[in-house]
Amino acid sequence: MPMKLLSVASELYPLVKTGGLADVTGALPGALAAHGVATRTFVPGYPAVLSQLGKAKVVRRYDTLFGAAATLLSAKVGDLDLLVLDAPDFFAREGGPYGDAAGREWIDNWRRFAALSQVGADIAADGVKGWRPDIVHVHDWQAALTAAYMRFGPAHAVPRVVTIHNLAFQGRYGAEIFGALGLPPEAWGVDGVEYYQGVGYLKAGLVSAQAITTVSPSYAQEIRSPVHGMGLDGLINGRIDRLHGILNGVDTDVWNPADDPLIARRYSGRALAGRGANRRALESRFGLDHDGAPLFIIVSRLTWQKGMDLMIDTIEHLVGLGGKLAVLGSGDHPLEGAFLGAADRHRGRIGVQIGYDEPLSHLMQAGGDAILIPSRFEPCGLTQLYALRYGCVPVVARVGGLADTVIDANEAALGAGAATGIIFAPSDTLALHGAIGRAVQLHGDKAQWQAIQRAGMRADVSWDHSAARYAALYRTLLAEAA
Ligand code: ADP
């Protein structure tokens, strides 16, 4: 009998995605199946989710769930086995999962994700139609309260894992919401949901789960320090025996240059020439000159975390070195404006598309020579993994998962044929300048550049290894609970 896992998350590729979280929750079930774990994923019924459900069964009804009527639906989408919280008052909204189209957060996010979490704990306690999870895995702050509802409720004996995909997002609210959460009084306090005199959703999960994981070994170390711990380093250090850094993988079926319907020409590491057609298609899409100059790409949230302000300060340098740049992203409005301004100043050399475009992101990886990822911190990062798989050389800051997944093209690594990218530190403009310079130089030596591309394409970025680690962790917790 496979182990029964309930995964709770607010994003799930291909139904709803704002970032790497969705890629992970979407790919992990398939990878875990090979390790004897059968996953059901519980997500909010956003319009995008409900519209893709097809046939769904009602498996539970709530007359009032935090004041709203709600039903729990069961459905299958592709290979994903889903439970969906259909609560129109909370989730049937235009805009994104967390805010309106103008980027303003929904003011009732605390209630929306408490509702999700409460129902997650109900599923753990009562099961649905005879199915009851052996273990519960919750992702990020939006689902973290599930662990607290379980701990202080009837599902307290069911083991739970919380994964930190990004410690910068914690779900912090005022103490006044505590009374509305429906948790018992003993849940208040430093060992419960209280966090600096308020309520912390992620914090509550971290103290209520039997295991904490984060998405790379380096980030697991970094969050122990005040710089990256974002106020939670003390707590994390106190639970260090419960912390695991497990690297994300990628869905190698969705991201496969030899079989990708979203790119202009398919190719493999043996036939890199096929990238040329993708490069030209990409240049045309962004109004860039068709020439042999190194083509850098960015596919990113345009934020401080991602070092996009450093990028703005480096654009003139990049163009001065003869490089071209295609940017796909959205985020902080001043950064969006700065990129658009640079594209105006450097027609044919810089192209910018503001927005979110999944298909285009595939073409960019297939056609770009190098991807720039100058993050100030990066729990894991997925774009460098897609880049490796597509022969787009990653140029990355030495932080978190970026440091764990890219091998710098230093002399030793080049000599050994092991180099897969360029790593720089610290995350500042000077170091980024240097890294771009190195990329331009290496790109000028075609044989060497191709050796780096091919080494990257050979790297194992699949979920195999990490799925085995999650499965082993679940087994350990089950054994402990028994
Ligand atoms: P984060 O989750 O912090 O944003 P990751 O690198 O872990 O960063 O994951 C980002 C995911 O979102 C990747 O799948 C990336 O391709 C995708 N992505 C980011 N910005 C865009 C965009 N503007 N258009 C399409 N995909 C994007």
**For the residues shown, what is the average pLDDT?**
97
Q: Count of helices? A: 19
CATH class of the largest domain: Alpha Beta
- CATH topology annotation of the largest domain: Rossmann fold
- The percentage helix is 25-40%
Residue share in β-strands: 15-25%
CATH-assigned homologous superfamily of the largest domain = Glycogen Phosphorylase B
- If classified by CATH, what would the architecture of the largest domain be? 3-Layer(aba) Sandwich
- Total domains: 2
* Spatial order of strands in the largest sheet: 3-4-5-2-1-6-7-11-12
Task: List how many beta strands DSSP finds.
Answer: 18
Largest sheet: 9 strands, mixed
The oligomeric state of the chains shown is single chain
Any descriptors?
482 residues, nine-stranded mixed sheet, Rossmann fold, 39% helix, alpha/beta, binds adenosine-5'-diphosphate
Description:
It is a single chain. With 482 residues, the protein is of the alpha/beta class. The protein has 2 domains: 3-249 and 464-481, Rossmann fold (3-Layer(aba) Sandwich), CATH 3.40.50.2000; 257-458, Rossmann fold (3-Layer(aba) Sandwich). Helices cover 39% and strands 20% of the residues. A 9-stranded mixed β-sheet has the order 3-4-5-2-1-6-7-11-12, with helices on both faces. The chain has a 6-stranded parallel β-sheet with strand order 15-14-13-16-17-18, sandwiched between helices. The chain has a 3-stranded antiparallel β-sheet with strand order 8-10-9. Strand 9 (194-195) and strand 10 form a beta hairpin. Helix 10 crosses helix 13. It is globular and about 65 Å long. It binds adenosine-5'-diphosphate. Adenosine-5'-diphosphate binds next to helix 1, strand 13, strand 14 and helix 13.
